[in-house]
């Protein structure tokens, strides 16, 4: 990439131009610094699915719930074991795990309410 053009991190316009320490996109008016863009790329490349303890989750893992959860009219108790989770690239209402729980059927969970089972 040349020094006189920068791709906008918000809309991917190739027409970003420098203005002092900032880069400006003429198409969406987004302003950014190159250092901020590099930090954003690091965050995106980092682990995406972390449990309540910060441990990386993977498809097929076994997890346990860390607190009581309302599921319909019932309560899924803390410590309930959930086998063979499936991680969702496109979260559904903020839920990023699809799984089946005995007695409840197919449900969605958030990574923040489970811990990886050892």
From TrEMBL:
InterPro entries linked to this entry: YjdM, YjdM_C, YjdM_N
Stated name of the protein: Alkylphosphonate utilization protein
Family under the similarity heading: Belongs to the YjdM family.
Record SUPFAM superfamilies: Prokaryotic SH3-related domain, Zinc beta-ribbon
Superkingdom of origin organism: Bacteria
Record-linked Gene3D superfamilies: 2.20.25.10, SH3 Domains
